[in-house]
């Protein structure tokens, strides 16, 4: 990805060195203590919604895919991320599933077969994407054509609503926004709910600490 791309900063931080400490620093410490949404809550989200054909956008280290309960023993998994290091790391971790990988920016239309995925995961992705909530919600537009009938898109994202944060959490979020790691200074629950409601006839949204957990279906269930 070119350094001038607005998405560059949010994904470039994930070097192999950072990925080796990601599970501890981000998922076990930051998620639990700072954002106050323990990793097991996100894992339970995967357990509930992940399908036998799954596209994971921004898979990180593959932590959740490695631990979640798929509905079949041999799911078909595709990993999508602009960072090749992330793809290599996550694919190696879940090698037993023989995942496919696609190096791609989700803010650009995704060239994958239409109606081919029973689930799409977007965990800890939206708060890293550049732009205001309306601009980054285009990811949902790119995901919609990929969902099979009855399919679901689900994920988690750190919100900017002041009342959801501790004082330390707000300070850390501000630091991450200045560094370009996060781009969520304007991301509110209301904006996320509007983005979901405009695109999906059925959705669920729950806030745990400073994290929104969501799931949405393009078909009535």
TrEMBL record:
Show which residues constitute the signal peptide: none
Enumerate the transmembrane spans.
none
Q: Where does the record place the Methyltransferase type domain?
A: 55-153
Q: Which InterPro entries match?
A: Methyltransf_12, MeTrfase_VrtF, SAM-dependent_MTases_sf
Supply one GO molecular-function term: methyltransferase activity
Q: Which CDD domains match?
A: AdoMet_MTases
State the Pfam families in the record.
Methyltransf_12 (PF08242)
Q: Which residues form a coiled coil?
A: none
Could you tell me the Gene Ontology terms of the biological process aspect for this record? methylation
Keyword annotations of the record: Methyltransferase, Transferase
UniProt superkingdom: Bacteria
- By its UniProt entry, which SUPFAM superfamilies does this protein fall under? S-adenosyl-L-methionine-dependent methyltransferases (SSF53335)
State the Gene3D superfamilies in the record: Vaccinia Virus protein VP39
State the name under which the record lists this protein: Methyltransferase family protein
Q: Which organism is it from?
A: Nocardioides albertanoniae
């Amino acid at each position: 990805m070119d350094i001038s791309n607005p998405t560059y900063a949010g994904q470039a931080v994930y070097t192999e060195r950072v990925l080796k400490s990601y599970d501890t620093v981000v998922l076990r410490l930051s998620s639990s203590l700072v954002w106050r949404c323990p990793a097991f809550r996100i894992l339970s989200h995967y357990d509930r919604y992940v399908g036998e054909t799954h596209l994971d956008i921004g898979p990180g280290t593959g932590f959740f895919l490695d631990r979640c309960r798929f509905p079949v023993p041999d799911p078909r998994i595709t990993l999508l991320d602009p960072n090749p290091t992330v793809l290599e790391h996550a694919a190696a971790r879940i090698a037993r599933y023989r995942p496919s990988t696609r190096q791609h920016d989700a803010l650009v239309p995704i060239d994958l077969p239409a109606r081919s995925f029973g689930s799409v995961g977007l965990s800890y992705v939206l708060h890293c994407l550049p732009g205001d909530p309306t601009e980054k919600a285009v990811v949902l537009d790119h995901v919609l054509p990929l969902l099979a009938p009855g399919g679901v898109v689900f994920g988690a994202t750190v919100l900017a609503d002041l009342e959801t944060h501790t004082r330390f959490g707000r300070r850390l979020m501000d630091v991450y926004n200045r560094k370009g790691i996060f781009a969520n200074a304007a991301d509110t629950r209301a904006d996320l709910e509007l983005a979901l409601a405009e695109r999906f006839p059925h959705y669920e949204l729950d806030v745990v600490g400073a994290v929104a957990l969501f799931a949405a279906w393009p078909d009535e269930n």
